[in-house]
Amino acid sequence: MRIERSFTTxxxxxxxxxxxxxxxxxxxxxxxxxxxxxxxxxxxEGWSQVASDVxxxxxxxxxxxxxxxxxxxxxxxxxxxxxxxxxxxxxAELPEDxxxxxxxxxxxxxxRMAGAWAxxxxxxxxxxxEADAQAYRDEMxxxxxxxxxxxxxxxxxxxxxxxxxxxxxxxxxxxxxxHRTGELTRSxxxxxxxxxxxxxxxxxxxxxxxxxxxxxxxVREARLFKYGSGTGTNFSSxxxxxxxxxxxxxxxxxxxxLKIGDRAAGAIxxxxxxxxxxxxxxxxMDHPDVxxxxxxxxxxxxxxxxxxxxSKMHEARLNDIFAAIRxxxxxxxxxxxxxxxxxLKAAIRAxxxxxxxxxxxxxxxxxxxxxxxSIEFPTYDVDxxxxxxxxVSGQNSNNSVRVTDAFLxxxxxxxDWALVRRTDGKVARTVKARDLWDQVGHAAWACADPGIQFHxxxxxxHTCPEDGPIRGSNPCxxxxxxxxxxxNLASMNLLRxxxxxxxxxxxxxxxxxLWTLTLEISVMMAQFPSREIARRSYDFRTLGLGYxxxxxxxxxxxxxxxxxxxxxxCGALTALMTGVAYATSAEIAAERGAFPGYARNRDxxxxxxxxxxxxxxxxxxxxxxxxxxxxxxxxxxxxPMLVTLARSAWDEALALGEAHGFRxxxxxxxxxxxxxxxxxxxxxxxxxxxFALVKFKKLAGGGYFKIINQSVPAALARLGYSGAxxxxxxxxxxxxxxxxxxxxxxHTSLVGHGFGPAEIAKIEAALPSAFxxxxxxxxxxxxxxxxxxxxxxxxxxxxxxxxDLLRHLGFTKAQIDAANDHVCGxxxxxxxxxxxxxxxxxxxxxxxxxxxxxxxxxxESHIHMMAAAQPFISGAISKTINxxxxxxxxxxxxxxxxxxxxxxxxxxxxxxxxxxxxxLASALVEDDEAAEEALASGSQQEKAATLAEKVxxxxxxxxxxxxxxxxLPERRKGYTxxxxxxxxxxxxxxxxxxxxxxxxxxxxMHKEGAGFRAMMNNFAIAVSVGLQxxxxxxxxxxxxxxxxxxxxxxxxxxxxxxxxxxxxDYIFRELAVSYLDRTDLAHVKPQGASFDSIGEAEDANLAxxxxxxxxxxxxxxxxxxxxxxxxxxxxxxxxVLQGGVGATALAPDAPRAQGFAEAASAFAAGTATAMDARxxxxxxxxxxxxxGECGNYTLVRNGTCMKCNTCGGTSGCS
Length: 1214
Fold this sequence. Notes:
Radius of gyration: 35 Å
Strand content: 5-15%
Helix content: 40-55%
């Protein structure tokens, strides 16, 4: 072929017009630990930090690259395409540890991939002259550097390592077809023939251990998963449960084997780096086990919910039994006797009512008799990587059902549907089609699986039906072809073809031609994981060219995703791409011959090409289609030239195909462009809309800088807004980035809290990158010394991830929210000044934006966009159809019906909140403004009522129940603390139980009005009654600390509390420090073993007290001293020397039984942080799950898969 230059010249080469820069690449876990770091990464100027990080972390060859290379002369190959190998003589002169290095420059990666493509293209006879090969190599390198297009990940991993560096190794069981002889050959080298394919479809025979059978499939899948590829299989050939076996037994059925495969995939991925296996499992709707398959994940998710709820209920109820035993004040021997201990009897009854097994209840009683005072029953949570999810099946694949038109007609007619045995083809049983369809809708609504593949629609556009029907797909559902074939993908970044003069159609056509050729060369040079896939991939040579960033392009052009113009433009671009790709394929066929399977499928393929052309021309003259496709909407296309070019391309494709045939059975798909979308700096992936208007641009060395979606300013300019108006609109979304003029929390108010110019400067410097101002007010921004010394915050409290410094300073939630909107923006354009509501649709995203956004794209808009592109795609489209949480099952089924009626081949629905592991986007922010307002400015009665309501609410949630009031001793211990709060004297008196636990408080105010003194006195009585009925002191502390009302201010006379935002804040800080050892609430941490302890000489002339004497003395001391007065310093040193109930009465800190799990549960410690991270992620537009590779909560929907916007990890193939 002749290759023209469009982007480069012979004089400047690939990089002559480009500048490169060096950056630091670093990826960190949420806890700050470094996942990857490279201090000198060379990338083209203009690449984002995320793109640089993904290239450096994922695609650089990190080891094994010789530091000195030499060229290997090869006969018949131009010198610039000669391979390189290690120069052993030159390497010998280097220190041994410097001989092998890794890639550090993007140029190295671009050069090795484009060089290998050109090398194999030359050997395969794809270039007419050396100049054509050189032009091809330069053009490809330029497009990679300019982020105009990118191949799928296996190309970046594998292509060119042997050609550029001489890296080699023994064969790994792969095969290839020799391009010169056509013979199937076993690879002897792991790298000479690269493995560039991402997507595979594999068959499975109804055979347990034979070649091509069930157990063999797990091995074949493992080989693909190990090297980062994805695979899909239709398992409908396996016999159903109960069908006869040849040996006389009966089959265990489809589901048993699917669960084995699911476990195998999960085990492989547990040692890898991705979130789960990239795997698709498909079942036909007439399989005898299809009902179990449909409901598989629904039931498994129910198991997770049961595990989570049941484990927490066990923990609570079993410890209630312990609590009842501890509260017993009679004879110690009777404490565990339910006939005598009424509280214990009630706790046991509550455990029975909660369905706690009697065995566990009895075990708790046995533990108590042995001296244990509590039990740690392992509790589970709904994190996707938690033990709860690990213990169930079905979590390592996407599931789809294969639906035929006959089934859909039976649903419409409410007819019967036969489930057919696989062994003899007879009817196993009959069900109502509508009932089965309803189960599909319910399952998709409940847990987002299974997806739908419309079998007859797929096969109506099948180019090779003579070789069998299309039964399967890859994991993301965009590649649909014959079993045991593979597809390598590449995607073009549409936004790179748009400039000031509009869309550059000539560049787009040129890029399409070159990438079609690249993917064809990749088939020729590739090796494959099995004989069958190598043979069939060579015979049919399917390609997967597509595009990304349609959402970003439409917004940049001022077009709504849900608009006739937007859909028409999408259709025109898709028609042009596939038309040019098929025309290029026909050109290659003229020189290199049609694909081997073309001759027997010629009539079918030309019929499909004519149907594509009819859709582009809008003639309505279709042949053999089951559903009339959506034709190209020429009238609404904003660029008529694209329509003209698309129609011309299909005319040319048909004419050339009739004359020469086609080199490839398929040429295009719309893939999710996961990791490669990040490398190209795409705002949107595949055909998806944007997920958020405000993005967090990563900075070198860590951190993020908040920016508006790059398409928004361009869209505002296109819509006619002035520069000043656009700036205000953008500021509404991203904020002003400064507290200078912010309401409530500003420079003036911070100075009043002790902030100096240096601290304010640090805050201001960090604000532009902040998602929330609370994340700026921390010890890392301000310095630990300032936080501890000036603000008086204990170090332990500073290290607590849930600590809110602004609330600690006394600011209310409403004040923080108002300042947040000013500084950080609303993250939505809804309500922005100057913005015409008629233009809101241009900026609609897949989900509501920010905390206040309400608009989002409808279900129908996703489906209609897919329908606009589908008639011009060889394969299918990987896309998630987002649904709100309030969507119904009927709406789910209606979405499927609409998809089928518009000719879409497959789709997958995701209803917000249908996964247990992901929080509802519609319920992220607690609506607590009313309570904050009452505490900030309400009357005393309103404040008391609000606080009481919060306490009651928390008690109900925590399920703290006590059936009786525990009376205090008639003569009891306690202490009196006098202090002055904001100039007002306060006397606090406490009363304690025998074991030192707080049981009552008295509050008196010196020289206060009778009304306020009386209210405080009655408030103390209410708290005391609550304590005696079992309300933990922790609940009161959490509820009342940080409350803000007068009197407030500096505290005098208290050794630990130095400032308080209210009387109640002071009182419960004091109680928390004294009885709970909550030193995080103290401004001065209590020191020593006891409240009045003094230093102890190391060499004191004192005899060591015996253990027995010390124990007895401590017991006596505890009986006569106040726990609160001692600030809980001494009792913590008490130990249990003898078992039994009598001992535990003096030892509340006795060992906790761990009979049900040796390790303590981390649930209590981790939940708050994890929930905060998930909530924050959802508010930023992410899914709310952590990435399995780097741990960051930056996963986004990516077609039917997921990708991480931090490290580029993906659950898909690309």
